[in-house]
Amino acid sequence: MSEPSISRPRRWDKPFSLEAGSEAELTDVEVEALLCKKPFSEIDASGFKRSIPLHDILRNDARIVGFDDGDIIVRRGDWGNSAFFVLSGNVRVELEGGESSLPDEILGRRRRQSKSFWQSLSQLWHNHRAPEVREVAVLRDNQSLQSTRTTSGGTRIYLQEVSAVLDKYRTAQLKEGHWFGELAALGRTSRVATVFSEGVSQLLEIRWQGIRDILRYDQNGGLKAYIENVFRERALAAFLRTDSLFQDCPQELMERIVAQVEFQTFGNYDASRPFKDMVQGNQSASAAGEPVIVEEGAIPHGIVMIRSGLARISQQYYNGRRTIGYLSPGQIFGLNEVRDALHADSPVPYRAQLSAIGHLNAVVVPVPLVEALLLQSQGAHQKSVVPSHASLSQNSRQSVKIKDDALLSQLIDQDFVQGTSLMVIDLERCTRCDDCVRACATAHDNNPRFIRHGPILNQYMVPNACLHCVDPVCMIECPTGAIFRDHGKGDIVINEQTCIGCAQCASNCPFDAIRMVDIRDSAGELIVDSKTLAPLTQATKCDLCIDQRGGPACERACPHDALFRVNMQESANVQEVFSR
Fold this sequence. Notes:
The chain is α+β, with helices and mostly antiparallel strands. It has 20 helices and 22 strands.
């Protein structure tokens, strides 16, 4: 008996317009109408491949989405994979401004409050015996300016009183012809603002695959220039000032820097090593396929500041290379070489190689501007007063390094460097008493949020617990935004009131740190769907005990000082744990 056969799946077997949330499949007439609008009319279609023409990109990677008054289109802090173009109507974008920003409650989130001392103490005897208890009345509560509704098969958050929001919070209007969301879609970063529909609007939504191909084949570079100009005008100065090296930069010099920095992209956005493969430790796919950003021994043309993604630092070691550190977003490479060149009669070459781990965006500040900045920071223009190496190390965040190069390579290859709160257990100290698991259960109504099992690196085990990643891919497809980054602490948390149990986050998590559980009422009875009578499930994971006054209970409960939380973006924290 012959085995069944099927055609190899293709990218456009299911057009974007057939996914939930769109009005209908795009027609050829609608695509031709789009091609007559700017900026599509300014794109040179002759540079596209025959197999991927501009017409087919719009037909298959874009969709027209209608929004009603108050519908939230994107939310500040959410991770997205598409950009939007306003076809008709108006949308409103919130303006940053502290208290004037839209509060989390309006956006479908919930502010986390720490429990009091007595509430924490009462957990020892007041927790429910039934697993995963939810207060039904709380789940039904919907008394806010925000609610949900189902449209075209998708769940949307919307504002019930748009006029009240416009009166109270600072917003700006975007009209027909405006783009938004492209920076987050292409940079693997969170949305920087909330955008909602003012009245009825119609938008063109393009998934990142389509934007990528337009950028790749557009000979005129119109869309790429637009995206880069938007970032340069709206966000570049603020991004640079996140590093203390640029914080005191005079306005005139900052304007020159903003005008002259170069934008660079490395790796394919859709072809980087799958997260699952990295977790499995595919050593053969480690440094070999990583695009080189800066070659060791090359003469510096500028300093590199990571905008998104991660980068490996390595040096020549006999006939191969040795990993000596890595960089995360906001960190700088090449500053010491530029500084040292100010004391020397000739340029100082890069002392190490910098390569991209997967997809990476970076900005490069030319050497003359860096030199001007270093001299300006001392209030003089003489080389003799250039900042010392020690003072520079305090100005800019340094790369992360540990003594054991082999261990460092394993952490990078398995992508644990994504973690901002990586749980690590030192097996040489751990006695397997399970006090950490019991403490976690006590802090979460008798429901532990992690499993004391996972990969072992030397004497360290990394359990199946949420890493609270720099790039949390679990958020990308959450339809209600129930899984989000807490704006106060930056932790990845789940709002039980808006989680609909779709399991997208659990499927996307590469570390198996999210579990779907049946939920029950206080009597221990399963909570079921009122229409289908099927048991309801919700996503659960480690939330770093965000409502506990003392922080993560697992870490505090370990009697042998064997369990640690490590921020892999902080060099001192990494060295403290892995260089013991």
